[in-house]
């Protein structure tokens, strides 16, 4: 395997502190840690989060992913000079995140205001193997003269979510003059978090401890000769009461025991152990491309690094937040992003993770049923934004208009219902990929039927046909419309799959359900394309005026259009925030011929600002499927820059988690041309000329295969005795044990396709 890339921070700049704290954040799906510097900066936002650890501060507010007490911060003093890169002179600076090991390293040569030089090197990682473990090491070397070095660090519970404190400090202790431990409880008393830390300093050091104003601190002081180093290794263990059989003193005692065991192993051994887990991750999922565009490979490695860091595999009770575990954006809530943008990667590499993500919804069915009932519907209406319980968490209001004092209502919770069908879509591809009938019997069919019941009750009957009124499709700039094509087709798909799986798996046919579902499928209005092959986004969209969006497209991602027009005005124009009909083409690829794909891309893309990070990569996939490899490549490269680009504030409050999944989608579902249709795996490759090859592992129906695609050939390596069936273009193959090489020119002609927008072929 070619070696993994690294992510480097080009310079130290106060302007990009928040961005790099997100980009270089560490995590293991259980715990996330922003990549803040040890020393404090006003511009910096520290953050440590535990997946699923939310708290609602007051009944009028949404639950938030709690920003936990900090263990990274260090106050460093050399000869009375407080270390900060805002004073003195930076003689050299490197900071890099190593994707292979998950280790973040910084190396600074600092000329202090006192005229002396100090070398300050630090390293840290969150263990990929022991989920509660954080290790860090700092080494300070006075270069010109002997020095008195003082470091204060500990557990700092003054952290907040933008000023909102969610935790009460219940106890702080120092055990054996060595181990620090703080216990904290959410202010509603429901959950507890215990943080334990130990600092080891080599040589002759004085240490003292104190607890004051929510800080439990250790103060270390040493005299160091010129050229010698002061080295401090800090090991921390972070645990909580959710999903944990341990509570109260047990939780704290076990935390201390675990911390001690780790301390005995030391930084290097713990890093090596964690690296082995990372190796396994890369083996299971890494996409390797042969190209001279380093940044393409880096974007894929970045994406997979964060996919590991953000995905909770330890519990079915939490899912992936919109910013992963890298920041507080969207308050740590879970959206359709998970099922549609993130789940496919997991499904096609480690399907047990996909099962867990779907199970999160299954556990939260009660909340979804409650929401449906409150709104007067049947079945399950999943919340647009979800946290711990499955109840709706979308804030009622968005930003305030400071001139009028009025708050803008957020309509998504009221009408952005496509999420329900997106969850059903994920259940369907899960079964097609795994054939896991146990899951279907126990959870999958129930999820499909409950979501189908929602749609059946959601319709409006108009002249005998069933329509879906007052919805918001994926494009959030177009609200409260009738018959959004995406929503109607996905709802149809939801009900059709529910009916089919019910027939396949349920021992007792539910006559009422079968009749209602059959009627829904017979009468639901499925909009058709016009004579230019354009599928209308909704009933009114094509009759609205268009405006030139060039300026707004240049500022995409910033919602600049809302500075010039009110939401109501935007709603009355042909302006898309993100892919909508194009999104439909991604989800249900068999509906569109390549000509229809091209027609709809050409119509909708100029009207799409791409203000959502979920838009560009989907355009890449659809452009590739339409046969436009180079256009697809441009979209994909732009999608890779959403977080990694030069914009200094692109991800201040956390990375765009779904966009990382979409980077993988672009490579595998776009360029390699993978689709799943009627239980079979299809490839219609469209490799950009800049790539000589792409190679990736893939799970399919019980087998882990390896695929390598060049401009000429597709090589499939099937290590299992079980043959794999797949399609290349229009030809179906059975790939036996070993390697099979297929010449593309024999099977891939200029893309044709058999799709029809007229109806769904279920
Ligand atoms: C997008 C949604 C997305 C959400 C969270 C919004 O800006 O429009 O589609 O689910 O961000 O990522």
Keywords:
9-stranded antiparallel sheet; 25% strand; single chain; hydrolase activity, hydrolyzing O-glycosyl compounds; binds beta-D-glucopyranose; Maltose phosphorylase, domain 3; globular; Glyco_hydro_65_N; 5-stranded antiparallel sheet; 32 strands; Gal_mutarotase_sf_dom; alpha+beta; Glyco_hydro_65_M; Glycosyltransferase; 3 domains; 762 residues; Beta-galactosidase, Chain A, domain 5
Low-confidence segments, given as residue ranges, are: 752-759
Category by helix and strand content = alpha+beta
N- to C-terminal distance:
40 Å
Q: What is the CATH architecture annotation of the largest domain?
A: Alpha/alpha barrel
Shape summary: globular
Give the number of domains.
3
The largest sheet, given as strand count, sense and whether it forms a barrel, is: 9 strands, antiparallel
Q: What share of the residues lie within helices?
A: 25-40%
Number of strands: 32
Report the radius of gyration as a whole number of Å. Answer: 27 Å
The CATH class name of the largest domain reads: Mainly Alpha
In which order are the strands of the major sheet placed?
Answer: 1-9-10-11-12-19-16-15-14
GO molecular function, one term: carbohydrate binding
InterPro entries: 6-hairpin_glycosidase_sf, 6hp_glycosidase-like_sf, Gal_mutarotase_sf_dom, GH65_N, Glyco_hydro_65_C, Glyco_hydro_65_M, Glyco_hydro_65_N, Malt_Pase/Glycosyl_Hdrlase
Domain Glycoside hydrolase family 65 central catalytic: 301-664
Binding site for substrate: 336-337, 577-578
């Amino acid at each position: 395997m070619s070696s993994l890339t690294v992510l480097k921070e080009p310079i130290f700049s106060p302007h990009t502190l928040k961005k790099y704290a997100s980009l270089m954040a560490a995590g293991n799906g259980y715990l996330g840690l922003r990549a803040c510097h040890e020393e404090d900066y006003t511009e910096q936002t520290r953050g440590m989060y535990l997946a699923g650890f939310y708290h609602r501060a007051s009944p009028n507010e949404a639950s938030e992913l709690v920003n936990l007490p900090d263990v990274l911060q260090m106050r460093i003093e050399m000869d009375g000079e407080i270390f900060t890169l805002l004073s003195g002179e930076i003689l050299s600076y490197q900071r890099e995140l190593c994707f292979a090991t998950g280790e973040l390293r910084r190396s600074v040569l600092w000329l202090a205001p006192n005229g002396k030089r100090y070398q300050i090197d630090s390293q840290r990682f969150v263990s990929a193997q022991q989920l509660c473990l954080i290790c860090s090491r700092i080494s300070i070397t006075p270069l010109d003269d002997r020095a008195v070095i003082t470091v204060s660090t500990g557990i700092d519970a003054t952290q907040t979510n933008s000023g909102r404190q969610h935790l009460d400090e219940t106890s702080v202790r120092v055990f054996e003059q060595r181990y620090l431990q703080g216990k904290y409880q959410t202010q509603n008393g429901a959950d507890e978090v215990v943080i334990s830390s130990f600092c080891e300093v080599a040589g002759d050091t004085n240490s003292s401890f104190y607890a004051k104003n929510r800080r439990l601190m250790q103060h270390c002081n040493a005299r160091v000769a010129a050229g010698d180093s002061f080295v401090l290794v800090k090991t921390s263990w972070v645990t909580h009461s959710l999903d944990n059989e341990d509570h109260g003193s047990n939780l704290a005692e076990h935390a201390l025991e675990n911390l001690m065991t780790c301390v005995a192993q030391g930084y290097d051994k713990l890093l090596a152990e964690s690296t082995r887990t990372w190796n396994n991750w890369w083996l299971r999922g890494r996409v390797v491309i042969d190209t001279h565009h380093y940044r393409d490979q880096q974007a894929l490695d970045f994406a997979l690094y964060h996919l590991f860091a953000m995905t909770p595999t330890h519990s079915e009770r939490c899912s992936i937040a919109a910013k992963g575990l890298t920041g507080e954006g969207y308050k740590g809530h879970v959206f359709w992003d998970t099922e549609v943008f993130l789940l496919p990667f997991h499904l096609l590499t480690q399907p047990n993770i996909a099962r867990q993500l779907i199970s999160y919804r299954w556990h939260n069915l009660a909340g979804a049923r409650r929401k449906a009932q409150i709104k007067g519907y049947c079945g399950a209406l999943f919340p647009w934004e979800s946290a711990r319980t499955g109840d709706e968490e979308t804030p009622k209001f968005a930003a305030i208009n400071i001139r009028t004092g009025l708050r803008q209502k957020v309509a998504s919770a009221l009408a952005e219902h496509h999420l329900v069908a997106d969850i059903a879509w994920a259940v369907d591809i899960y079964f097609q990929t795994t054939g896991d009938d146990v899951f279907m019997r126990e959870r999958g069919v129930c999820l499909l039927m409950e979501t189908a019941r929602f749609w059946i009750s959601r319709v409006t009957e108009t002249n005998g046909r069933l329509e879906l009124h007052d919805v918001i499709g994926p494009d959030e700039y177009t609200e409260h419309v009738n018959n959004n094509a995406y929503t109607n087709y996905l709802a149809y798909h939801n009900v059709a799959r529910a009916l089919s799986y019910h027939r396949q798996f349920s021992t007792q046919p539910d006559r009422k359900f079968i009749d209602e579902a059959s009627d829904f499928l017979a009468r639901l209005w499925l909009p058709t394309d016009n004579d230019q092959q354009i599928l209308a986004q909704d009933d009114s969209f094509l009759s609205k005026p268009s405006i030139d969006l060039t300026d707004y497209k240049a500022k995409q991602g910033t919602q600049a259009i809302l500075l010039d027009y009110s939401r109501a005005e935007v709603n009355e124009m042909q302006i898309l925030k993100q892919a909508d009909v194009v999104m439909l083409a991604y989800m249900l690829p068999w509906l569109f011929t390549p000509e229809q794909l091209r027609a709809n891309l050409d119509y909708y893309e100029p009207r799409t600002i791409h203000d959502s990070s979920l838009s560009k990569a989907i355009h890449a996939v659809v452009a590739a499927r339409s046969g436009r490899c180079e256009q697809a490549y441009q979209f994909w490269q732009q999608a890779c820059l959403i977080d990694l680009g030069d914009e200094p504030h692109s991800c201040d409050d956390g990375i765009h988690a779904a966009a990382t999944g979409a980077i993988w989608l672009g490579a595998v579902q776009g360029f390699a041309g993978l689709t799943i249709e009627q239980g079979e795996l299809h490839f219609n490759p469209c490799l950009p000329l800049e790539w000589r090859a792409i190679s990736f592992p893939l799970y399919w129906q019980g087998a882990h295969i390896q695929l390598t695609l060049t401009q000429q050939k597709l090589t499939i390596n099937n290590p299992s005795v079980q043959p794999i069936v797949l399609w290349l273009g229009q030809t179906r193959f059975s790939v036996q044990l070993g390697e099979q090489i297929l010449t593309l020119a024999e099977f891939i002609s200029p893309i044709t396709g058999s799709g029809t927008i007229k109806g769904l072929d279920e």
